[in-house]
Amino acid sequence: MSSPDPYRIAIVGRPNVGKSTLLNRLFGSRVSIVEPTAGVTRDRIGVRVELPCYNRTRVVEVIDTGGIGIVDRHDLGPHVEEQVRVATMAADLILFMVDVRDGVTPLDVEVARRLRGLSKPVQLVCNKADTEKFNWEVDAFRRLGIVGEPIAISAQNGDGMVALVERINELLPPVEGEAERFRPSLKLAIVGRRNAGKSTMVNALAKEERMIVSEIPGTTRDAVDVILERDGHTIVVIDTAGIKKKSSFDDPIDFFSDTRSYRAVRRADVALLLFDATAPLSGLEKRLARYVVDHHKPLVLGANKWDLARGKMEPEALETYLATQLPGVPWVPLSFLSAKSGWHVEETFRLCEELFEQSSLRVGTGELNRVLERALQAKNPSSKGHRVQIRYATQVSERPPRILLFVNDKRLVTKDYLRYLENRFREELPFKEIPMHFVLRDKQDAVLEET
């Protein structure tokens, strides 16, 4: 009996965004080539590759397309239409690639407009994000209107490939014989300084229920995924080596171990920041906490080794201390635990699950706008002679809750006012302990879409 045809993944985008480099990365670093085949047209090529899929591998066909728009800008219409049509006609999943260094271009807008009408999943992939600076630029591409979280990668050096492969597995149907229960319902990153007790925490969570411990092939610098079966659900706990001061790096391995923590945050649904309750909070931990929140990920602060600190410090004193060290995020929950003894480990994990559930909620547009109206009445956004109008709000996605605000001119909306809105929304909506992500949209965005 012949095996079923593999799922097809088409890589689409304008010229020079790195489509071929991504194909080569998937082709070479993801275990093995199964069968190279000629493309349907001269500017398309497909290869069959193996991708890690939870506790096994899956074969997919990845199709590279010629760059969209290798013609004069005014003649784009038919060319773009044909390229997108041919590339996506037989595909089960579209990877829409853009170049984070170039920012949003008119060609990106044109491709996005055509992809938004498809009835199949589209994943936005922001390439060439090989430094933290460019990782921050990813949010600008949300204006393209592609549903879901964009993924930042560097196809050249492999950064972000684990997150991309995970997302591919989520968007494609399970492989034959693969039960849905192997799809993780929660990805929890345990991060912090070295010797904070992260590995001990992983072991405490795993117990005898531990199923698989594996490092994804070809990604030796990435975090180790521990897959756990709990209450009928599959949980992925991302273990990290921990962060340390750059001045104390001994070799390149230290550099990769450090960046591993930040990459784990971007992959995760929730981050648990473990710190030693017997020691002062360091600048590294403060920076890591800020990174989690700035990337709109739910955060739990885990005061580990509390059995050693108890008697020397009251819980209220630690809460007050943390409020001074981490201003601006008083809504982040704190859990006292001892990973070594197992005390409050389960409670801490349940708290992480609660935050995951909060981030998965969707609020109706009517309720959202009633809260917005009350917030606007209490505090007007206009200032310095500029009239700011926030006309409408709608939640467009979850994990994290992403709220689109339609305004007259997004340049006039200050960060302080967005923080005010977030606090008001947190008071009245079921997002009490998680960050929200506000995206502004004005007339200029609409004009770009129509060009």
Automatic annotation (TrEMBL):
Biological process according to GO: ribosome biogenesis
Query: Which GO MF terms does the UniProt record name?
Result: GTP binding; ribosome binding
Residue stretches making up the GTPase Der C-terminal KH-domain-like domain: 362-441
UniProt binding sites for GTP 1? 13-20, 64-68, 127-130
Domain (G) spans: 8-128, 188-305
* RNA-binding as UniProt keyword: no
Entry's InterPro entries? Answer: GTP-bd, GTPase_Der, KH_dom-like, KH_dom-like_a/b, P-loop_NTPase, Small_GTP-bd
Which positions bind GTP 2? 192-199, 239-243, 304-307
**Keyword Ribosomal protein in annotation:** no
Record's function text: GTPase that plays an essential role in the late steps of ribosome biogenesis.
Subunit info? Associates with the 50S ribosomal subunit.
Q: What is this protein called?
A: GTPase Der
Q: Which organism is it from?
A: Engelhardtia mirabilis
